[in-house]
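Weekly structure sync, notes
Attendees: PL (lead), two postdocs, one rotation student
Agenda item 3: pending single-chain targets
PL asked that the sequence for the first pending target be pasted directly into the notes so everyone works from the same version. It is reproduced below exactly as submitted, 242 residues in total.
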Amino acid sequence: DPWEIERMKKSSQIVRDTLKKLRELVKPGISTKELDFVAEDYIKSQDATPGFKGLYGFPSTVCASVDSEVVHGVPNNKKLEEGQILSIDVGAIYKGYYGDHARTFPVGQISASAKKLLDVTEQSLHIGIKSTKPGNRIGDIGHSIQDYVESNGFAVVRDLVGHGIGESLHEDPQIPNFGIKGTGDIIKEGMCFAIEPMVAMNSYEVFTEKDDWTICTKDGSLAAHFEHTVTITNNGAKILTK
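Predicted structure, written out during the meeting:
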């Protein structure tokens, strides 16, 4: 309903502005724990609640994933180093509704290959969003993302997916970043999705670290992650976290 989407728009703007603040701080010498404190303080200052902290037992406000860590990295006191890449995923709840947003940032100067990985992953998100319109199917989203990513020589992570979003962070349907055109649920006006390509430099195979949270590429290659929360209008997808 429109009033629900208004609340999601607010929570989505809060996570958008959280990442804007963190973007200014991501540089060599800062720890992901410090970034986590900034994020939590800001979200609470906006009359919202961190969406990840405590969810399924997760200990922090943001997921902070470095280099080969794909997603769900737990913030720690280790200092970031020049040339690394850092994926930050953040959620917020405003009046019962979630917003979810992720970006991958360079830490200082990064290699040309790492920059290409970031650029392709971000562009694949926007290509996926263009496929998200009434009458299309969920498989159309993943197909468009996969086609673009693989044509650039990278791999779409398959064990992790986007999702519906609303009063819960993770709702049906699941939205893979790969797939076959014309398959899956029909996309309808009023639906809300978190679309989030996760892209690896080489192989899409992943494993979970001993902390039971951090998911990494098996071959140790770099991975990037970009995510927007969108709602479906009769004109297509509207990005709430833009």
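Discussion points:
- The two ends are 20 Å apart (CA to CA).
- The CA atoms of residues 62 and 90 lie 5 Å apart.
Action: rotation student to compare against the earlier draft before next sync.
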